[in-house]
Amino acid sequence: MNSLPTTALALAEQGLPVLPLRADKRPFGNCRDCEELACDGRPNMRIPGPCTCPWPCHGWAAATTDPSVVGSPQWSAAWRRARAIGYHPGGAGATVVDLDNPAAVDWARENLPPTTTVATTRGEHWIYRGTVRSVNAVREGVDIKSTMAYARWLGPGTGTMADVPATVHELVKVKPAARPAPRAVAVAAPAGGGKCPHRSPVYLERGIAMAEQRISTATSGVHAAVYRTFLAVLSAHGRCGCLTETHIGRLFTAAQAKGESARHCTDAWANASTALGM
Questions:
Q1: Axis crossing angle, helix 245-257 with helix 222-237, rounded to the nearest 10
Q2: Which of 8, 47, 82, 258 is the most exposed place for a label (fewest CB within 10 A)?
Q3: Which residues contact 98 (CB under 8 A, 6 or more apart)?
Q4: Three-state DSSP state, 3
Q5: Whole-angstrom Cα distance, residue 268 to residue 275?
Q6: Which bin fits 97, alpha (ψ -120 to 50), beta or left (φ > 0)?
Q7: How far apart are CA 192 and CA 213, in angstroms?
Q8: 3-state per-residue secondary structure call for 188-244
Q9: What is the three-class DSSP state of 182?
């Protein structure tokens, strides 16, 4: 009998946002309703915000503490195929320092304060109290998983949890690039008037945050990444009137921080609006 959903329910009731993971440690995805928007469950999804389909398609954003969702018939197929439980550390107010090899573990023992530790296949997870931005490969064999990320549940671990140390804060600190100052948003918010699909007040905020992350983590094809992100945001939030100029400004700021010009941002937004018939 698969004990994963039972364990996941217990964790959710304790306040840990959980989701099922496949054998390759990735979230489930590829539901038919989301195929055209590349909703494939990767950590860097193209479509922002939680999904309205029954599958846990959106990586960390699908993680939930709601027992009615974790134990729902809609999630049962995923749990039958799941081989691990994932969780959103940031949603639980925690940070995981993922140490992927013995050398990384040795580095942590020399540079980080003791905290709750969990053994992994190749190294250890050091879990701290508090949240930071998630960044992979902050040094050889070390990933930081907290906000907008998921980690595997490998047990409660041993040791007393400490606060996120200054060393981790320094590792994830954004190094400012020499970019021109972003210009103010140059487009008006959509008029809206359509049916609002938002299921909770955090839906829009989570969608905008994921869109900002999608843009800021793009390593190539920034033009295309900006356009696809704008298209996804408008598709999910552009017809109900909830999207404001402040939200659009956040997206433009993220794009300009990656080197996009204000004019390209405006053009990409206009092209996405036209493609959606808005």
A1: 170
A2: 258
A3: 120, 123, 125, 142, 143, 144, 145, 151
A4: coil
A5: 10
A6: beta
A7: 25
A8: CCCCCCCCCCCCCCHHHHHHHHHHHHHHHCCCCCHHHHHHHHHHHHHHHHCCCCCCC
A9: coil
CB 132 within 8 A of CB 169: yes
| Residues near 51 by beta carbon (within 8 Å), at least 6 away in sequence | 31, 33, 34, 39, 57, 58, 62
Which of 72, 98, 83, 92 lies closest to 28 in space, CA to CA?
83
Q: Which of 4, 8, 59 is nearest to 30 (CA)?
A: 59
Q: Return the sign of the alpha-carbon dihedral for residues 104, 107, 108, 114.
A: positive
Helix %, strand %, coil % of the chain (to 5): 40, 15, 45
Q: Residue type at 171?
A: L
Instruction: Going from the first residue of the chain to its last (278 residues), give the mean pLDDT of each consecutive group of 10, the final group possibly shorter.
Output: 86 93 79 46 40 67 87 87 93 95 96 97 96 90 91 95 96 65 62 60 78 80 81 80 83 85 81 77
* CA separation for the pair 141, 98 (Å, rounded): 8
Query: What crossing angle do the helices spanning 202-216 and 222-237 adopt, rounded to 10°?
Result: 170
pTM: 0.61
- DSSP symbol at 64: B
How do beta strands 142-145 and 135-139 pair?
antiparallel
**DSSP secondary structure letters along 16-39:** --EEEE-TTSPBP---GGGGGGT-
Give the per-residue pLDDT at 224: 78
DSSP letter for 184, please: P
